[in-house]
Amino acid sequence: MKGNLAALMVMLGKAPQKPKQITPPAQAIHLQKRTKKITKAEIEFIKNELKAVEAGKYRKKWRNRRWVSIITINLLFTLSFWLDIQLFEGSIIASRVLGFHMADIYSALQVVLAYKIMLINLVIGTVTVFIIWLLLGGRAFCSWVCPYHLLAEIAETIHLKLAAKKWVTEHSFHRGVRTVFFIAFSLLAFGLGYSLFNSINPVGMISRALVYGPGIAMVWILILFLFEVFYSRRAWCRYVCPMGLTYGLTGALSPLQITYNLSSCHHETACHIVCEVPHVLECVKKGRAGNVEVDVGADCTLCGACVDVCPTSSLRFEIKGLSHIS
């Protein structure tokens, strides 16, 4: 189960650990892989494959689907406003969609903590969103709906090209700092009576800009974009955004997830190169899978990049208990 305690601790910032117990079937596969000899031709093939992946030369079926989803959903809010058809009202953060109230869970928490008030529409909106993303995988919101995610992907692509030319250097931070921000923003909202996070949240800023037109807030978006291009890729999503952490917790028990199959994996590590949150793929490393079938962690955004790049289909979307998705 992707929402087990170990997976949740990793999502909060703990370093992934080798499983304490490995099932006998998994042990047999690990032993077989350790004793298997790899030919020079296979090594050369893997090297060329990794070079192609690093250069971005691999199929992007799920990436293309996600981009269509992000653009379509956000444009629906824009068009509904400009055409005054009132089907998608508000923004991604707080809206009424086809008559149903929806509210981002963490943003709503900020309002409750800051103003010490519990509005019925806010309760309805957060419960609705909770149920939706419990079913759809939690952090799937990040890669399939969030407008800033699209900008972060573009910034990452530029960053990697500059890094390949040695023009920039990647800087990373401890992942646990996101949990600190989650707590800090909550305490500040309660103490100040004002939601600082909602004021600087790029997700809300971009969503409102698309609907009502851009403003001075776009300067902050530009600063974040340039920071991720020249200093640390995906910095906001990986190290700051408490929304991502909230959706990860929401989807911890979701039936929709990415599943890893140990027996068919060749351990090329191409999936690590493209993964937005590579710590969730610790199980694909040699000797790290505790079972033949492993559920990828709750911090997974279900972006599908690992599914696209895996040559053996060892990583697949799955509706738990029903079927795989291709």
Structural features, described:
- This protein has 326 residues and is α+β, with helices and mostly antiparallel strands.
- It has a domain at 75-249.
- 55% of the residues lie in helices and 9% in strands.
- The chain contains 16 helices and 7 strands.
- The protein has a 4-stranded antiparallel beta sheet with strand order 5-4-6-7, with no helix packed on it. Strands 1-2-3 form a 3-stranded antiparallel beta sheet.
- Strand 2 and strand 3 form a beta hairpin.
Summarize this structure briefly.
The protein is an alpha+beta fold and 326 residues long. It has helices at residues 5-12, 24-35, 40-54, 61-82, 105-115, 120-136, 140-144, 147-164, 177-192, 196-200, 202-212, 218-230, 235-240, 242-250, 270-274, 305-309, and strands spanning 88-90, 94-97, 100-103, 256-261, 293-295, 315-319, 323-325. The strands form 2 sheets. The chain has a 4-stranded antiparallel sheet, with no helix packed on it. The protein has a 3-stranded antiparallel sheet with strand order 1-2-3.
